[in-house]
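Supplementary Methods. Inverse-folding protocol.

Structures were first reduced to a discrete structure-token string of length 252. This string, shown here, constituted the complete conditioning input.
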């Protein structure tokens, strides 16, 4: 045992000398990111009533039959508020968390790689925000109007508070991610991962995958699936157009 330890200690010291500073830097960056998320979530919880009212407002506008929401077990409203506050906190702290990630990896990158990575991060964040705004202000009201169109005097909708906010969050996140589709297509093409005609040749399979995703998100309703699938397919076709507009750079 004693003869093994001296040979192992120098190896451990060399490992700590090389990776120790990076480990401490990573731990510090993660700590800052978690602290920012917690602070943003607490701030969101302090204003959770107006935030929840903003989320519920499109539902009341979409149907005159709905004047309130219900919850069926005692902790449901409290837990739903916590989930909503955490979601808002994650969204609000997203740019700062990305900055912490960028600050950690940037010292090891070349200048061109730094510019490219920063461009990807900023563009992806802006596209996610644009998709979330499109979902909340354009897609969600129309989707709710259709889904609540089945209500009448003898069929009263009684949406649950937790289920409705889950539906809103799922729709917003879906469109936020969907708005990344054209950007990812262009980056894959320009980065040489796929050739220019790949997305055109395989568009049928991608359409089917997007339709299946819309079917899952709309909980199986065919018309709601169509309302979700059409914007996704349009974004995919936009990506094909942008790939033709900005083709892969030829090697010097």
């Amino acid at each position: 045992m004693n003869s093994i330890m001296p040979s192992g200690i120098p190896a451990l010291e060399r490992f700590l000398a090389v990776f120790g500073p990076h480990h401490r830097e990573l731990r510090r960056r993660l700590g800052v990111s978690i602290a920012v998320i917690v602070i943003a979530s607490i701030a969101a919880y302090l204003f959770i009533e107006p935030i929840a009212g903003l989320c519920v407002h499109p539902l009341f506008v979409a149907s005159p039959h709905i004047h309130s929401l219900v919850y069926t077990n005692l902790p449901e409203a409290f837990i739903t508020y916590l989930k909503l506050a955490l979601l808002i906190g994650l969204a609000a702290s997203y740019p700062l968390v990305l900055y912490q990630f960028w600050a950690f990896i940037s010292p090891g990158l070349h200048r061109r790689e730094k510019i490219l990575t920063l461009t990807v991060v900023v563009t992806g964040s802006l596209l996610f925000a644009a998709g979330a705004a499109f979902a909340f202000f354009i897609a969600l009201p129309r989707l709710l109007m259709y889904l609540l169109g089945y209500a009448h005097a003898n069929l009263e909708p009684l949406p649950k508070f937790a289920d409705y906010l889950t539906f809103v969050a799922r729709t917003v996140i879906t469109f936020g991610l969907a708005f990344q589709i054209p950007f990812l297509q262009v980056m894959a093409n320009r980065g040489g991962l796929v050739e220019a005609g790949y997305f055109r040749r395989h568009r049928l399979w991608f359409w089917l995958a997007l339709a299946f995703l819309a079917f899952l998100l709309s909980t199986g309703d065919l018309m709601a699936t169509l309302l979700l699938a059409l914007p996704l397919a349009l974004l995919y076709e936009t990506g094909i157009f942008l790939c033709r507009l900005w083709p892969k750079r030829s090697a010097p």
